[in-house]
Each structure stands twice: as structure tokens, then as C-alpha cells.
Inverse folding.
């Protein structure tokens, strides 16, 4: 096989993966994975009956799942008909959105990304951006859902304890600013875990802030978790007071002025407080991001993170894989002197920043 033929095979494989993404999103949306999980081998007819769908479509969907290795094909013990099994490890990723290993949430963002393809093409020609508000509302929920399992597994139990003395401080009662809070999942996770502390979420996107307020009220956490529409670069102690902990969860790279955001964090931080910066665990060198997670981050940076930052008309758009050296340089320019990689997962790098 020639080099071109080999590369064509790879490209077609990537196209197959992209097309399979739609099938995965449909399986999640229609409850097909959840119906398969823990149920043993199941025929297409039974799966369709349990999910209120049509067998002919379910059968074709199952074929895509077998081809991708997500579902195993076997035989129905009763009649010998083709049956399909979702292995338990696969169910943890595809069927249980609360599991730390859940990965199905990201697929809901695919249709929103393709929705703005024409706008992105214009950005390539003009240098403009695509503001968060220009993406369909499903995007915000999809991205929040993608990060939520990792946040639930790590923020309270692993990342905060990795900061020197911070858990004890939160247990006693502290003030926390969650910058770029989005719809507030990170803020509310911390608020639930530390009832003596007060949490303020800040984000420049008004619809996300409005949604965060609703969630806080629904969960009975609005007595200690509040949300406000305010850009990070505009934060000042004279307005919002000072905080023992300032957090950025996978958002600094989405800001048009990341240096201004870090300067805002410095202005509102107590002298002995800490900033927890969580960013994608990716490298500035694209050749070191060729693993699946790295490829996902770089693709999302092109389609979402970079355009969103450029749309804010700030002085610097980082992209989501600027790397630790660039992030540390920004923190030092903002006036911080302490920098430490406190924790990491395959997806996230967690930095502790001090004055």
C-alpha cells in the first residue's frame, strides 16, 4: 500500500469516528446506552421496545456500535437471534453520566460546533471571533456536562486538599471567588462541601449566570452561593472585597484578556490566599498532543476556545493548550511570585498560585 493510500485509510478512519459521534449522541439522547447497561445481551427489538424507538433504526444504530467496538454482538439464548451487549466498563463511560469516567457528554456539543462552521470560516478570513452567546444554548450544557464528572470526583476530594492548608480554611469559613463559573457546577460543588464558607461565582455570560442562580436555588445553596455577571478583568477589592481562594476552572484560556483576569484575581486575593488555576493538561507543542485527549483539546480550541476569546476583543487569545510555561509567565506578569503544579489528571492540570 502506498503512503497516500495509507494516509487515506487514516483520514477515512477519522471521518468514520466523526460520523460515529452522531450515533453516540443519539444513543445518549434516546436512552439507548442506559437501557443496555447492566441488562445483559439484548435484541434490537427488545431495546426498541424499552426505549420507545423503532426497531429498524435501533438495529442500524447497533451496527454502528458494533463496528466501533462500543457494543459487542452475541446471540440471544432463547432464539439464537443477534443480540447486543454493552460491557460494564463501556457503560461507565457511555451510560452513567455521574461516573468519574463518563465521557458521553462531549458528543452533545458536536451539532453546535458544526452549526457555527460558516461563522468560523468567516473568522479565518477576517480574524474575528464567535462569542459564547452565538453558540446554541446546548453548547453550555454540553461543556458543563463534559467537565462535571471530573469536577465531582476531584475538586473537593483531591484538588482542594492539594493546596497548602486550604481545606482546613474552607472548613472553618472562607470567602471563595469562582471566576468564569459558567452555569455554576464548580461553585456549587464547593458550596455543598463547605457550608461555613461563602462562594461568589463571576462570569461575563449573562445566560449562564442566570442558569447558575436557578440551580443554586433549586439545590438550596443560594444562602451561601451567589452569582454575578462581571468580567474577570473588572474585579476589584473595593467592589467585591477580598477572598481566601480564587478559582479558575478551565476558563482562563477562553478569556480575551487572561493577563487582566489574573490581575483581577490578584487585586481581590487576601495576602495569604491562593489561586487555583485548572487548565487542560496539554502541551504547547502540538506534536506532544497527538494522544486522544490532546487531539480533542486542540480541535475544541480551533472550533470553540480560540474564537470565543478573540470575540472578546482582548489583547491575547491563548487557545486551550498554551502550556505551563506560558501560563506561569502570565501569572508572574500579573504580580504573583508563587507557582506550583499541585495536582493533575489526564485531562486537567491544577496549579497553585500565591502572592
Amino acid at each position: 500500500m502506498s503512503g497516500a493510500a495509507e494516509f487515506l485509510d487514516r483520514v477515512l478512519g477519522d471521518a468514520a469516528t466523526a460520523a460515529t459521534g452522531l450515533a453516540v449522541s443519539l444513543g445518549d439522547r434516546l436512552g439507548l446506552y442506559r437501557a443496555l447497561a447492566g441488562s445483559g445481551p439484548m435484541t434490537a427489538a427488545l431495546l426498541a421496545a424499552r426505549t420507545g424507538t423503532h426497531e429498524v433504526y435501533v438495529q442500524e444504530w447497533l451496527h454502528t456500535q458494533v463496528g466501533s467496538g462500543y457494543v459487542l454482538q452475541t446471540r440471544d439464548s432463547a432464539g439464537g437471534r443477534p443480540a447486543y451487549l454493552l460491557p460494564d466498563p463501556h457503560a461507565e463511560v457511555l451510560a452513567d453520566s455521574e461516573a468519574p469516567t463518563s465521557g458521553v457528554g462531549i458528543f452533545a456539543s458536536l451539532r453546535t460546533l458544526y452549526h457555527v462552521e460558516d461563522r468560523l470560516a468567516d473568522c479565518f478570513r477576517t480574524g474575528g471571533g464567535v462569542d459564547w452567546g452565538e453558540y446554541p444554548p446546548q453548547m453550555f450544557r454540553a461543556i458543563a456536562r463534559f467537565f462535571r464528572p471530573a469536577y465531582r470526583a476531584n475538586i473537593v476530594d483531591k484538588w482542594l486538599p492539594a493546596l497548602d492548608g486550604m481545606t482546613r480554611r474552607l472548613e472553618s469559613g472562607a470567602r471563595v471567588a469562582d471566576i468564569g463559573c459558567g452555569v455554576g457546577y464548580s461553585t456549587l460543588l464547593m458550596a455543598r462541601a463547605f457550608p461555613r464558607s461563602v462562594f461568589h461565582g463571576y462570569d461575563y455570560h449573562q445566560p449562564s449566570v442566570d442558569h447558575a442562580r436557578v440551580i443554586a436555588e433549586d439545590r438550596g445553596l443560594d444562602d451561601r452561593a451567589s452569582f454575578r455577571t462581571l468580567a474577570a478583568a473588572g474585579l476589584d477589592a473595593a467592589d467585591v472585597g477580598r477572598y481566601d481562594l480564587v478559582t479558575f476552572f478551565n476558563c482562563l484560556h477562553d478569556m480575551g484578556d487572561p493577563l487582566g483576569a489574573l490581575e483581577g484575581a490578584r487585586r481581590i486575593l487576601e495576602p495569604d490566599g491562593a489561586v487555583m488555576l485548572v487548565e487542560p493538561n496539554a502541551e504547547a507543542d502540538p506534536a506532544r498532543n497527538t494522544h486522544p485527549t490532546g487531539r480533542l483539546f486542540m480541535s475544541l480550541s480551533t472550533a470553540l476556545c480560540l474564537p470565543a476569546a478573540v470575540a472578546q476583543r482582548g489583547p491575547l487569545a491563548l487557545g486551550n493548550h498554551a502550556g505551563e510555561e506560558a501560563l506561569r509567565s502570565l501569572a508572574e506578569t500579573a504580580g504573583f511570585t508563587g507557582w506550583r503544579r499541585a495536582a493533575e489528571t489526564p485531562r486537567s492540570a491544577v496549579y497553585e498560585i500565591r502572592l
Summary: The CA atoms of residues 242 and 268 lie 4 Å apart. The longest helix spans residues 3-29. The first strand starts at residue 72 and ends at 75. The mean pLDDT is 92.
